[in-house]
């Protein structure tokens, strides 16, 4: 995994509930095994191996701030990962998550909204793919470290 830049910023965030589509825990999801599990082989074919990470996203609320991606570490366009659904574009940015005084290498996962058909995130929510974090709960505070050259807060 590429190292984060020395110009890193640390962003406080609150763990918040998402749609549970990425993990497959939403019973109404069209992807019962979870969208991340289905997408991993497609990302792997394009050069990003996420198999060591927990196949879900951790939703981090940075409100009242919003964010803008300046430069992704990985940009995958026209990923046709689910039969019967349109292809999507995805960006990934290396980052680190601090939870219980430990830092975990992670990726900001950004499905481009202009290519999505449903399940849009709040503009103050960052989705992160990381290790399984035992004991983490909604409402927990975490810190996100990411290069200010790659992501800016607004």
Topology:
Layout: E1 8-16, H1 35-45, E2 58-61, E3 67-69, E4 74-79, E5 88-99, E6 102-111, E7 125-129, E8 141-147, E9 151-153
SSE ordering: EHEEEEEEEE
Largest sheet: 6 strands, antiparallel, barrel
CATH T-level fold name: Elongation Factor Tu (Ef-tu), domain 3
How much helical structure, as a percent, in the residues? under 10%
What strand line-up does the widest sheet have?
Answer: 1-2-7-6-5-8
What is the domain tally? 1
CATH C-level category: Mainly Beta
Shape: globular
Oligomer: single chain
Radius of gyration: 15 Å
User: What do the pLDDT scores average to?
Assistant: 87
Structural classification: mainly beta
Strand fraction: 35-45%
Task: Report the end-to-end length measured between terminal Cα atoms.
Answer: 27 Å
Helical region count?
1
**CATH homologous superfamily caption:** Riboflavin kinase-like
Question: What features would you describe in this structure?
Answer:
- This protein is mostly beta strands.
- The protein has one domain: Elongation Factor Tu (Ef-tu), domain 3 (Beta Barrel).
- 7% of the residues lie in helices and 38% in strands.
- A six-stranded antiparallel beta barrel has the order 1-2-7-6-5-8. Strands 3-9 form a two-stranded antiparallel ribbon.
- The two termini are 27 Å apart.
């Amino acid at each position: 995994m590429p190292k984060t830049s020395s110009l890193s910023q640390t962003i406080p965030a609150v763990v918040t509930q998402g749609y549970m589509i990425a993990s497959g825990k939403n019973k109404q999801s069209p992807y019962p095994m979870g969208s991340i599990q289905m997408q991993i082989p497609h990302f792997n074919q394009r050069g990003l191996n996420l198999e060591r990470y927990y196949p879900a996203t951790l939703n981090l609320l940075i409100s009242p701030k919003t964010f803008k991606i300046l430069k992704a570490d990985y940009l995958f366009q026209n990923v046709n990962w689910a039969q019967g659904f349109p292809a999507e574009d995805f960006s990934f940015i290396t980052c680190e998550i601090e939870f219980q005084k430990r830092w975990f290498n992670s990726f900001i996962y950004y499905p481009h909204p202009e290519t999505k058909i449903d399940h849009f995130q709040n503009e103050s929510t960052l989705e992160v793919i990381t290790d399984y974090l035992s004991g983490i709960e909604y409402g927990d505070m975490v810190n996100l470290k990411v290069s200010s050259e790659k992501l800016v807060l607004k």
